[in-house]
Amino acid sequence: MTKMQLSNDSDYIYEEVEITRVKELLEQGYDVEVSSPDGYTGVQCYIDKGLQKVFKIECNNNTVIASYRHLFETNKGWVLTENLDTKIHKILCDDGKYHTFVKSDIEEFQDVVDIGIKNKQHRYYTNGLSSHNTNIGKTLIMCSMASAMLLAGKRVLYITFEDPEVKIGQRIMQNLMDKTQTELKALNKDAYMRLFEKMINQVGHNKLKIKEYPEYCVNALQVRALLKEYKEKHSFEPDVIMVDYLGCMIPDGRVDPNMNDNSRLRAITAQVRSIGMLLNIPIVSAMQSNRGGYGKAEIGLDDVADSYASTMKGDAIFGITQTAEMKAAQMYTVKLLKTRYGMPKCPVVTIGVDIEHQRIFDLKSFNDDEDVEIGSNNLPPPPAPPGSSDINGFTL
Known about the structure:
This protein is an alpha+beta fold.
């Protein structure tokens, strides 16, 4: 059960409902809000994630059945269910305190559902336990694009706000090494280092920098300072910058506390775009869609969450969607929503997604090549290779 606040025609109803009822309530026209450590926050969508490996978490007299990949807020930060350790972690509960818990393995796979919420911290209370809302796939797509740039001989700067540097590095290495998490986990140290050296020889040295910043602490001026530091101290000048993602930044200068999200994101987009204009390099980022955009076969510019004005600053904008049917088939629909250089005749394509290799791919090329096994597993990624981090972030 999850505490929710429902409103319809300005009448508010407070009740506890099963998360499986959210879809029904949204379809009935209710504005649904869910309780979180940051107060009540709006629910944008309901997502059926299919059969998954699950665990039972018992904490502070509450019980949650959660997917092995679900994130809980602990005294050590966000931790996947599968990685929760009763000896190390305590879970944040709705009384504002961290509590010990009991974790039980459930052998049978179960149907898993989740919700997407409009919350800058991406968290809500599930049966009184603070957890992270559903992962839509923005980071997977950006890591795949970064990998493709590296294979094309480009230098890439990846700025991350939500995921740690090592996690982003692991995702990109999964793609470049063409190994699943299961295969990488099975490698011994010598085999892993041979594979790592082969990858470095393929993409080159000093081609990737990954820099992590806290959310809502960094603006475009600080990114400019980072670029200057990399150039002077590391002889590194990126050919492309990945920002994961713009909504986690703040505008330059003094910020008006009364500034709404539309104005804030419009300013951030314009200021980050100016970096690309001045340095003549592309900058790639991502934004979430609003509630109306989730589950659609195609989306438009009016489906962008928080700030329609930010879309006016983009040079090329793509809408990437995935219906329940396409998720089962492991595919995305990609639609070109805007370009400053004229719309092509066929702006909609379908691409494949390989979660285990953290890769998006062209379906025609995939069908022409030999078959590649696509599946899922619940094993954690391998440790980062020795010497892969420095004071300025993860480095390849």
